[in-house]
Amino acid sequence: MPLLAAALILLALGAVVLWLSRRQRQQAGLPAGRVIYADPKLWGQVEKPLFSARLNLTGKPDYLVDQGGLILPVEVKSGRTPSQPPDSHLFQLAAYCLLVEETFKVRPPYGILHYPKRTFAIDYTPELEAALAEILDEMRSWTGKRSVPRSHNQASRCAGCGYRSICDERL
Ligand code: SF4
Fold this sequence. Notes:
Bound molecules: iron/sulfur cluster
Largest sheet: 6 strands, mixed
Number of helices: 4
Order of helices and strands: HEEEEEEHEEHH
Helix content: 25-40%
Radius of gyration: 19 Å
Strand order of the largest sheet: 1-8-7-6-5-2
Structural class: alpha+beta
Number of strands: 8
Shape: globular
């Protein structure tokens, strides 16, 4: 019985954490991912990186899918399948949505994040676009600086980073 009670408490805590993280994301204006079925057979390889001269931005999504004239970027992630995509994946996909719009002159309503066990549609909302623009502005403001502050508090990211041995900000 105590084991069952502990399991129920853990379950409830998990639900609260999930609810809090979703609420935090909504308050930040970032869209939550919608789980979808997407057929990889319809995804087309991207020959060369997309480029925006206006934004001085380039990037190459893993695939593009043509859905009745709408071009959607697809990013494939390996490793653990999250219950919701992390912000870094959202912004990477948002950058691809922006590049797709610049290149094909049609705004993608959403992009696709594909994990081993789940596929999410991420709405390319004006709020997500605005949050991306802020990040790009901030990144540009650091261009040419000798030292750039760490943008996260995840020791696991530093543990696997190729710059770890020379980075003063490593965790
Ligand atoms: S080691 Fe430095 S560059 Fe690498 S993830 Fe950590 S803070 Fe970023």
